[in-house]
Amino acid sequence: MPGMREIFAHRLRVRYSECDQQGVVFNGHYLFFYDVALTEMWRALFGDYAQMVDQGYDLVVAEARIRFREGARFDELLEVSMPVAHLGTTSMVVRPVFRIDGRLIADGEVRHVFIDPASKAKKEMPPQVRSVLEPYLDGAGQAAGAASGSQSP
Predict the structure, then answer these.
(1) Number of structural domains, the chain?
(2) Residue 152 falls within a domain, yes or no?
(3) Does residue 30 belong to any structural domain of this protein?
């Protein structure tokens, strides 16, 4: 496997409307922030997401977990790092890390499954997606079959 590349990160500014009555970002917005970062990562690595859908592949969230450490506040610049933790046969796992000025705000794990857009059935990860994402594996993860020979979904 080629050497690990720098982890993709996206920055966004917390808007007033994203904060709750406690003055911190409402917890549900972190998955939205993650989705924005994933979209930007996809654009940077692959180009137009719609092109993948036109080629018969789509990506859906199968599982998501966020652990909250500290609340982000209005007008802070939030950085979302997107380490790829695992590439399975039909799935991938990203472990987003949310930071402000280096402080850990939240982290988590999101498992995506590749599907056929028409039938919604699971589909093997496109080879071109795997080859682009493998160098971004964070070291804790591995490509399916890379070390243990296992084929994870």
Answers:
(1) 1
(2) no
(3) yes
